[in-house]
What we know:
The chain is mainly alpha-helical and 290 residues long. It has 3 domains: 1-34, no CATH class; 45-151 and 261-290, no CATH class; 154-251, no CATH class. It is built from 12 helices and 5 strands. The protein has helices at 18-34, 48-59, 73-76, 78-81, 95-109, 112-132, 154-167, 169-181, 185-190, 236-249, 257-270, 275-281; strands spanning 36-39, 42-45, 196-197, 202-204, 210-211. The protein has a 3-stranded antiparallel beta sheet with strand order 3-4-5, with no helix packed on it. Strands 1-2 form a two-stranded antiparallel ribbon. Helix 5 (95-109) packs across helix 6 and helix 7 (154-167) packs across helix 10 (236-249). The longest helix has 21 residues, at 112-132. It is globular and about 65 Å long. The protein starts with 17 loop residues before the first helix and ends in a 9-residue tail after the last helix.
Amino acid sequence: MVIGQGDAAFRHGAFLDRDAAQGWAAQAAEAKRACTVRIGSKRFLGTAAEALRRWAIDQGTLPRDEGGTQLAPLLRLAPLLEDPACAWPLGLLDAAELAALRRRRLAALDDLGAMLAEQAALFAALEMFRDFYLPALDDPFARIAPDGLCILDEASCAQAIAWGGQVSEDMGLAIGLMLTTAAPAEALRTCREAQADRLAGRLHLPGGLTLRPAGGLMPAPRKGAASLLLPGLPELAGMQRAVGEIGRRIGRPGLTTEALRLTALAGALCGGRHLDEVLLMAGARLSGQG
């Protein structure tokens, strides 16, 4: 049953019944009113696509000789901008809709790292857009979504690391590394002593990622090059359970290790890193490299 499609539905798609369609239409009308930006006589609707366009243009292109791909962020993010949810008033983009958007983008990209980097770009774009135009608008990334993803604030990051340290020293280090470098949990779990270059301050993870841990997050030396660097970590499912329990303690029940990685990627973009750099940080398969 398809009711309420068209401009009023903002390309939402089919509704199961008339009440759902009417409820969406009312919500959309209110969001459109609240998210219309007025600058003098100019009016435009605040959408994720509008925020991403402005942010991507501001990023500019990173040349190859500076470690970039020379592919404009606006071109790289074009498929994301075309998603129907990016045309909605920002007030409609809540945690559940973000989770649905992520499902669509992951299916299209078939690359978890690229999807997480896209989401980090969306977060950075919305942060900038809200600061300039809609300061009263809630941050949809602040709430835990049905897929276990969110972006933690600084206080919550500190709490997560502290709770992780109570599980084990290695769990505290792993959470700190995920929150600051976007390291995948499985790569940390299987990283070995031979992959730690302490003189250079680098960890060379399985899969090819290279980390530069912040002070205090480099694991202690282990005896034997083949020794696990973080031997106190459980199997991946056990790590996910531990992070979920930590999430419950900090008010984000169902938190996942990928949420910690997303937090790191978002922090890097908001801290001035380029999208190309953050895609590499996420372990994404990059097009446009020469």
